[in-house]
Amino acid sequence: MSADRTGGVQSLERAFDLLERMADAGGEVGLSELSAGSGLPLPTIHRLMRTLVTCGYVRQQPNRRYALGPRLIRLGETASRLLGTWARPYLAELVEATGETANMALLDGDEVVYVAQVPSRHSMRMFTEVGRRVLPHSTGVGKALLAELPPEEVRALLARTGMPAATDRTITDPDAFLTELERTRALGYAVDDNEQEVGVRCLAVTVPDSPTAAAVSISGPAGRVTDSATDKIVPVLHAVARRLALALRDAGTAAD
To answer: What's the pLDDT score for residue 138?
Structure first.
């Protein structure tokens, strides 16, 4: 590999690292923060950020800080759709095995966004529109995803979003919610028990080592998604999530 090509690849890796650091910081940072976190000298970061601004992937705010740019939205939306397309055969397996509607969702900023769904064949079934965004505290997928984060990050997220009640069963106290996340980690799965919609229960697990934080779930009437049904459904959820994780990992390896 030539010296120019080596330098180009290194610059590309550094640029992606800066974008990911910006995303981890909430989407807006200053150059000094990026320098402290990345270990790169300020002139290098300034040069890379100038290129990203020119390309539309970053924009400079009036306060001189840098924010993720609008061009990333199109990339993110396309990637989410593709991830949903890859997930659909695995969600279909969940429907076949459990009889209930299967979903896949991502944590996008402070919200959960549903990127794929395969409906149950029952006449009484749950339906969530693909692309729908909800606050994570009242959903099974949201609990599963937040259980992967440090408590201080969860508290900060809840402070930003608030904890409005969707039903009288929604957890609206941060301390109670953190206790629920401890329970989620201990059980290995999350439960939405009439918290997003009355009469509906949802069971969710994360997709391990997903390239972006993702969870899969089943949802159905509380009369069908009982405690005894949960004992049978959860192992299926974990098995499908593991197979989906392997498929995503293989896709990434093939891309390399």
So the answer is: 95
Residue 1 has pLDDT above 50, yes or no: no
* The residue to which tokens 């969940």 are assigned: 94
In angstroms, how far is the first alpha carbon of the chain from the final one?
A: 17
User: 64-101 in b/e burial notation, b at 16+ Cβ within 10 A?
Assistant: eebebbeebeeebeeebeebbebbeebbebbbebbbbb
pTM to 2 decimal places:
0.72
Other Cβ atoms less than 10 A from the Cβ of 240: the count is 24
> Distance between CA atoms of 80 and 127, rounded to whole angstroms?
19
pLDDT tens for each residue of 37-59 = 888 888 899 899 888 998 888 98
3-state secondary structure the chain: CCHHHHHHHHHHHHHHHHHHHHHHCCCEECHHHHHHHHCCCHHHHHHHHHHHHHHCCEEECCCCCEEECCHHHHHHHHHHHHHHHHHHHHHHHHHHHHCCEEEEEEEECCEEEEEEEECCCCCCCCCCCCCCEECHHHCHHHHHHHCCCCHHHHHHHHHHHCCCCCCCCCCCCHHHHHHHHHHHHHHCCEEEECCCCCCEEEEEEECCCCCCCEEEEEEEECCCCCHHHHHHHHHHHHHHHHHHHHHHHHHHHHHC
Query: Is residue 253 exposed (0-12), middle (13-18) or buried (19+ Cβ within 10 Å)?
Result: exposed
